[in-house]
Amino acid sequence: MTICLDDLLCISWFQAAGQHFSLRPLHGDLGVEVIGVNLKGGISPELHAELQKVMHTKDLLLFRGQDLEPRDEDAFMRGFPHNEQAVASENLSNHYFKDWRVPDHKLVAVQFSGLKLENHFGVTSEKFNLSAKNKQAGISFKTLWHMDLAQNQIPPEWVSLYMLQKPTNGGDTLFASTVGAYERLSPDQKKLVDSLEVVNRRPDSFEGTFQIDETGTWTNDPVQASGRVDLEPSRRFEYTQPFAIRDPYTGQKSLLYHTRFFHCFKGYTRAQSRAIIEEVLLPAIAPENTYRHEWRNGDFIAWSNRKIVHTSTDPEKYADEARLFHLVFLDSQQPLLPASA
Ligand SMILES: [Fe+2]
C-alpha cells in the first residue's frame, strides 16, 4: 500500500517474511529511507531479497538509528551478489585500507579523524588519523564527485557507509544518479555516450587529471585534487572501460565515472573529452537532482556504486572535529556490461 501526501512525502508499506517495513523516498528516483528494519543480528534472506528489489530500482537504502557491529554490516552487505572468493581472501578491494580493517571482519574498514581511537573493534588511532596526517603534509583535500574504485576493471557494485560519530559542523554526503544523467540525454547524446570508451590512466603524478568538486567546478590541481603525488613506475596503469554501462538487474543504463583516473575518451582530445563530460554529467550533479544526506549517528547507507556518483562537502569545515565511520566496498564478480551490448 502506498500513500502520497505530496511529491516528496510518499510512504509505501511492505510485508516480507512476516516483517513490515515502509519506504520514504529521499529525492526523486534516488534513494529511500527504509523504516522499521533493524539490521543488528542479521535479517532473514527473504527480507534481504525484498530489500534488494528496492535497491535495484531506488539505488540507495538509508537505515536510521542503527546500533551495528562490523559483523552486522558484513552480513548485510554479503547478502548482495558478490565475489565470495575475493571477499573470503585478503585480496579485497579495500586493500587501500588494509591498516584500518576490522581484524575479524576485513570487509569493514574504519575511517576516523580528530579523535583518539582505542581498540575500536581491533583498530587503534596509532594506525591512522587522516586529519593529522594531511595537516602534517600540508595537504588540503578537495572534495570530488566519484564512484568508489570505478577505476578497477571490476568496480564494486555495492558500497556502504555506517556513521558512528558525525562532525558537528558539516560532513554531509551528496549523491547523484548517473542513471538519471543517462536518462536526461537526447537520443543523439545517448548514441554518442554508448559509443565512448574511457581511457583511465594513472600517470607519474595526478597532474592534469579531470576532477569535479562539489560545486561542479573543475580542478586539475594534483595535490588539492588527490592529496598525493607519489607514483612509482610500477603503480602506473592505462586501460579502457565503457563509459555507458548497463545494469544487469534492471537493464537501466548509467555512466561510469571516476574523476581521479579519467584521462580522456578514446579517440577524443582531452578538451573534447572534458566538453562531453560537462555536457552529460554536470546536469546530474546540479543541486535539484542530487540527494544531500545530513548524517546522524547510527545512519547506515548502502548504495549501488555503479549507478551513483557521490562526494563529501568541504572537509576543511570539519577537519579538526571528531569523526568516525565504517566503509564496505563489496567485491563484485559482475563484469562491466557496455550499454551498447
Ligand atoms: Fe567514496
Automatic annotation (TrEMBL):
Gene Ontology biological process: sulfur compound metabolic process
Gene3D superfamilies recorded: Clavaminate synthase-like (3.60.130.10)
Superkingdom of the source species: Eukaryota
A GO MF term: 2-oxoglutarate-dependent dioxygenase activity
Record carries keyword Glycoprotein: no
InterPro entries with a match to the protein in the record: AtsK-like (IPR051323), TauD-like_sf (IPR042098), TauD/TfdA-like (IPR003819)
One GO term describing the cellular component: cytoplasm
Family affiliation: Belongs to the TfdA dioxygenase family.
Protein name: Clavaminate synthase-like protein
Species, as recorded: Coccomyxa subellipsoidea (strain C-169)
